[in-house]
Hints:
Layout (H helix, E strand, L loop, with lengths): L2 E5 L1 H14 L5 E5 L5 E3 L2 E3 L1 H11 L16 H8 L10 H15 L4 H12 L4 E4 L6 E6 L2 E4 H7 L6 E7 L10 H7 L2 E4 L4 H12 L8 E4 L2 E2 L2 E2 L4 H7 L6 H7 L6 E5 L3 H4 L5 E5 L6 H18 L1
Amino acid sequence: xxxxxxxxxxxxxxxxxxxxxxxxxxxxxxxxxxxxxxxxxxxxxxxxxxxxxxxxxxxxxxxxxxxxxxxxxxxxxxxxxxxxxxxxxxxxxxxxxxxxxxxxxxxxxxxxxxxxxxxxxxxxxxxxxxxxxxxxxxxxxxxxxxxxxxxxxxxxxxxxxxxxxxxxxxxxxxxxxxxxxxxxxxxxxxxxxxxxxxxxxxxxxxxxxxxxxxxxxxxxxxxxxxxxxxxxxxxxxxxxxxxxxxxxxxxxxxxxxxxxxxxxxxxxxxxxxxxxxxxxxxxxxxxxxxxxxxxxxxxxxxxx
Length: 304
């Protein structure tokens, strides 16, 4: 079965890793959100893309889910000593990624080309694609003004109240090379448990996917009204929507054919009008990722 996965952030990276554990490289393509990319200290940083690639490569920090395992912080400590902005931490190994990405982008290489080369160097055999080679920037509209996503998420620690979102550069952005082919050859699309507002919506907005007859299944990132990681539940609440798996299903109502919700939401699942799988969606271990991925694929298979 040829699977196209859409992912952003730690939860998305975990399910992408689960899918990669059970699908051969030719059967899985992961398209990653780049709406939270930004420029910092003169460097081009792609947080979601790096989180997915590090996770697939087995390089991710197992405690945080982002950044590199066994990271050191000598460069950051010296940057702080020099008075540089210190609100976004860059570990020494991670810094090398950003330095080399920035150098290649300035040479005129595309983000998808750089990502392909990095994946090869890190031993990632499955295909990982940025959603676009052109910059798209997620802006969080808050009660304290409009904030670039990383300013809201990291620097302000999600404290401002959310009023809405917009994606700057969307009109000029086209899907990255390979994304359209991945969609056309997919037997199913899996929306990983990523933030619907700021991780998945940018991907769907850029790809502008035409109608498809293949199954399209999402795993809810909200469990019992809370997110395992990230601000999705807070965003729902501040937008006047009760955070729940039901709200996630509603968010994607014109796109999905099925949804996977956690066992904690089994009663809520009865209100969802599309095909629903109720299972344990919490991925605490690497084995949990493969187990959930296998259940998602079985759910898709049973629905076709």
